[in-house]
Design a protein that fits this description.
Blueprint (H helix, E strand, L loop, with lengths): L21 E5 L4 E8 L13 E15 L2 E6 L3 E4 L5 E16 L11
Antiparallel strand pairs: 1-2, 2-6, 3-4, 3-5, 3-6
Protein name: Cupin domain-containing protein
Amino acid sequence: MADTTIIKVDGNHSPKGKDGQKYLANGRTVSMRLWEKETPGPAKPPVRRDYETVGYAIAGRAELTIEGQTVLLEAANSWVVPKGAEHSYRILEEFTAVEATSPPAEVHGRDKG
């Protein structure tokens, strides 16, 4: 039997992660999160994550460095961070973006560290 569960999340009341991300709707194999009005600052330390991330920039500008290659992210840009790739972000101008992660970042502590 197919899963007929509908999940709706009100972003105004979403739980927040330790890095400021808002956790939005999530399923068994993918989840969404919102980075809202992230402030400019130095690059975040490089990390490797146990999930793939696809993102879409809504407003502002940021630099994404993946395995030594840097790209500029601006409104209407989308990107992919492969599972296990070393990467970091540097916010250049107040930045808002939505990301989807697979498997879900917030499950089993994948978003920690």
